[in-house]
Structures are given as structure tokens and as C-alpha cells.
Design a protein that fits this description.
Blueprint lengths: L2 E3 L7 E4 L4 E8 L4 H15 L6 E11 L1 H17 L5 E9 L3 H13 L4 E6 L8 E6 L5 E5 H9 L6 E7 L1
Parallel strand pairs: 3-4, 4-5, 5-6
Antiparallel strand pairs: 1-2, 2-3, 7-8, 7-9
Helix pairs in contact: 1-2
């Protein structure tokens, strides 16, 4: 039996199945990461005892906070332990077109773990890929980010740390 968690505003959709398809899709900014992620890690630990011949981890994050990144890192670590011996693991890292932050997160994970990663840039609907140019009030650094990412920054209470310079529709 797999594990399925419906997507909320703060938690990603999770669909981990015994047939080797594992999906994490959405935003992960839960205030209680342990309660959300621990059952997933426990399921994965059992799965790794007798995994499918091939395992595909599909990740498509809009935004993920540092607490969630630690849990995603643990998922990758568990899969790395069985890769090549019990199952062939492939990580499909999807990211929104132009979202360098999520792409970089995947690249960082790729450099840490000995797992094959495939990066797929997704072209989402125009209104969902609305871009915002911002400037950090602290450092002066500028970036063009997705509106989804900007929305997550604001919802996490960090919007006051930036100036919005321009919006691109």
C-alpha cells in the first residue's frame, strides 16, 4: 500500500506507490514539517526493503522552505542507499520555466547525492508563470522570480524584505 497526501496551500501533493513512482508536487512550507514528512519517510524506509525494480522520483516544487528541504534530502539519501543494488533510481526534477531558485535547489541535491537527475523545465500557463523583479532591501541584489515564488515569500512573512521593481505578465 502506498502513501497519498492531497495538496494544500502549505503542503505538496505526495503520491508514493509500491510500483516505484514517487511524486512530490507543489509548495512545501508547512509549519509542522515533522508531522507532514515523518510518515512519508517511514513509508519510504519500508519501501526500500523490497523496492520495485526501478524507482522514479518526480519532484515539481513551486517553493520549498529549508525545513522541507531537509526532509527531501533524507528521501534522496534513503533512495541513494538502495540505488544500483535493489532498484534503479531516477530523479526527475521539474521546475517552472525561468525559476532559477528551484532549478538550483535540484542542482544542489544532484551534487550531494550519487543519483541520476534529469531536469525538465516546465512551461506553465501564462498567468501561473507571471514574473516579478525584486530587490533585496538588505543586500541590494536583484532577481526575477516567478509570481508563485513571490507569493510564497509574502505568505511566509518575508515580503517586507524586498522591493518589487517590475511585474511581467
Amino acid at each position: 500500500m502506498g502513501i497519498l497526501k492531497e495538496r494544500t496551500q502549505d503542503c505538496p501533493y505526495i503520491n508514493f506507490s509500491e510500483n516505484g513512482v514517487l511524486e512530490i508536487i507543489g509548495r512545501s512550507i508547512t509549519e509542522d514539517p515533522f508531522t507532514f514528512w515523518q510518515p512519508i519517510l517511514e513509508w519510504l524506509e519500508q519501501y526500500c526493503i523490497e523496492p520495485a525494480k526501478s524507482t522514479q522520483l518526480n519532484i515539481f516544487l513551486e517553493y520549498s522552505n529549508s525545513s522541507s528541504n531537509k526532509y527531501i534530502s533524507e528521501i534522496l539519501r534513503q533512495l541513494e542507499e538502495v540505488h544500483g543494488e535493489k532498484t534503479q533510481v531516477n530523479v526527475i526534477w521539474n521546475y517552472e520555466q525561468g525559476d532559477e531558485t528551484v532549478y538550483q535547489l535540484g542542482s544542489d541535491f544532484e551534487s550531494i547525492f550519487n543519483l541520476p537527475f534529469q531536469f525538465i523545465e516546465q512551461d506553465v500557463e501564462k498567468e501561473k508563470s507571471h514574473k516579478v523583479k525584486i530587490r533585496s532591501k538588505k543586500t541590494g541584489a536583484e532577481a526575477v522570480i516567478s509570481y508563485r515564488y513571490w507569493d510564497a515569500i509574502v505568505r511566509n512573512g518575508h515580503g517586507d524584505e524586498y522591493l518589487v521593481l517590475q511585474e511581467f505578465l
